[in-house]
Design goal:
The protein has 346 residues and is of the alpha+beta class. It has ten helices and twelve strands. Helices cover 43% and strands 20% of the residues. It has a five-stranded antiparallel β-sheet, sandwiched between helices. α5 runs antiparallel to α6.
Length: 346
């Protein structure tokens, strides 16, 4: 009887499989006949000639892999636990005319993580909006139902309602800003601007708020500072967020230091530092996550929306820059932003 798969054809198949970056296995009579490097790395080199139910240990996968030809052919199966615990895989099985089966594993970890982030973002945004909205509705109902509320109490209730409404407004504005920045993240800014002048404008705007901490800001800018290529509105917002955080979380009366210096690698370095309580090391990697707060109560008390550093991160990424946060508990926080200098056309 002729060999159903001549050696030359088998060698060609192996070559094709090795060129596929995702795990692919070929089954014959329920056993792993061949597997590419990606499959061997994921499942182990011992899987060759092994029962596929032992190679891929998953009840739903075993049912599909041992089903008669054509049964469940269009179904896809999601697997958890192959490789590392946080990996997600989609299993697809294709029957071929000679009785063998091709098993294709597609890594869906990034897609799952993105969907998880989207769901968490919607849930967090809904929660952040629901809290001030409930306060506004509660006080409004009290005022409308009780005609005997004295003037001082009425004014206090109205102030709470106005504060909560402004909190909602800040959150909605930050959500819109974040959405716009993400929509433009693949479009590089094309305007040259003077970062020193932009910092001066932000300083003037902060002074107009009559915040007593505005007088604690000290700016140091190098004379030979090159221009940067950037989006003025987005960089202004990033500066407001960084300097605003330093004002809020630094101790009253301590300096908020803003420095601008050129770097040797054709970058401009912006640093913003405060002398506050600082942040513990375990929190630092998560500070740029949306709605992540080290101290939720304090953040809300000082008017934080939980999106400030997330906005800064996306602005810096859009400008192809780098963001670094360093902090010492009890001593303060230093945020460094590196932005590419503008290329001068001659």
């Amino acid at each position: 009887m002729d060999d159903p798969q001549p050696p030359l054809a088998s060698a060609r198949l192996d070559t094709v499989l090795e060129g596929i970056v995702e795990p692919v296995l070929v089954l014959a009579d329920g056993r792993v006949e061949t597997a590419n490097a990606a499959a061997r790395d994921l499942l182990g080199r011992h899987i060759l000639d092994q029962d596929v139910r032992l190679a891929i240990r998953h009840p739903a996968a075993a049912e599909r892999l041992t089903a008669p030809p054509g049964v469940g052919a269009s179904a896809t199966i999601n697997l958890v636990g192959l490789g590392t615990l946080d990996q997600r895989w989609e299993l697809r099985v294709t029957d071929i005319p000679d009785g063998r089966r091709v098993v294709h594993l597609i890594d869906q970890t990034d897609s799952y993580a993105a969907e998880r982030m989207r769901v968490d973002f919607v849930a967090n945004a809904s929660h952040e909006l629901r809290t001030p909205l409930a306060a506004i509705l509660g006080f409004a109902e009290t005022l409308s139902e009780d005609d005997g509320v004295d003037r001082a109490t009425r004014q206090r209730f109205l102030k709470v309602m106005a504060d909560e409404a402004r909190r909602m407004q800040r959150l909605v504005e930050d959500l819109i800003s974040l959405s716009r920045i993400e929509a433009e993240k693949y479009r590089l800014p094309d305007t040259s601007l003077d970062l020193r002048a932009l910092v001066a404008d932000v300083m003037a705007e902060l002074a107009d708020t009559h915040d007593p901490r505005a007088g604690d800001i000290a700016v140091e800018a190098a004379n030979d500072l090159p221009l940067v290529t950037g989006d003025r509105a987005q960089l202004s917002q990033a500066l407001h967020n960084l300097i605003g955080n330093a004002m809020k979380y630094g101790r009253a009366g301590t300096p908020v230091s803003v420095a601008l210096r050129p770097c040797s690698d054709n970058m401009v370095r912006l640093t913003v530092s405060d002398e506050g309580d600082g942040v513990a090391p375990e929190h630092i990697p998560r500070l740029t996550e949306r709605f992540y707060r080290v101290d939720s109560g304090r953040s809300r008390a000082v008017g934080g929306t939980g999106l400030g550093l997330a906005i800064v991160k996306h602005v810096v990424e859009r400008h192809r820059g780098r963001l670094d946060i360093a902090s010492q508990v009890g001593r303060g926080t230093l945020v460094t932003v590196l932005l590419p200098a503008a290329v001068i056309k001659r």
